[in-house]
User: What shape does this take?
Amino acid sequence: MNVLAKCPKCDAGLPIDAADAPDAIKCGRCGRTIALHVTPALREDRAVDRCPVCDGADFYIRKDFDPKVGLAVVIVGALISGGFYWFGRDLIAYGILASAALIDLVVYGRLKDVTVCYRCHSEFRGSYARAAPAFDLHTADLLEVEYERRIGRR
Ligand SMILES: [Zn+2]
Ligand SMILES: [Zn+2]
Assistant: This one.
């Protein structure tokens, strides 16, 4: 399983391979040492049961979507369609614009889910079975405040 650990101090994303994760890593941005408690389920890519960074056991699922990719498709589509529009081929122009939007939809639908830790926002990618519920704002508010108090941000 691939874990994107979030540094508690500076929020930098630190990619780790859970299969042979060390006991601690050092943040490349701020130099803070982050202790990792990787459970056997994480190592074997079976399930996300406990967060290795904050020890929390509350997670949610979201689409693993990179907004930059979606935006690039729309911009390229708009540029091409603008070219056709300029030469008076508006039907083709509208068609291209529509297909760019459609490609975005298809890409979005085929995306895998990523599991995210409510407290420290570490992300978990792999072939394990997704068991966490969808994002809940109320839970996030409670757990984030709890975590930030613990690490002394509030
Ligand atoms: Zn850091
Ligand atoms: Zn966490």
Observations:
- Helices lie at 40-43, 67-86, 90-110, 137-150.
- The longest helix spans residues 90-110.
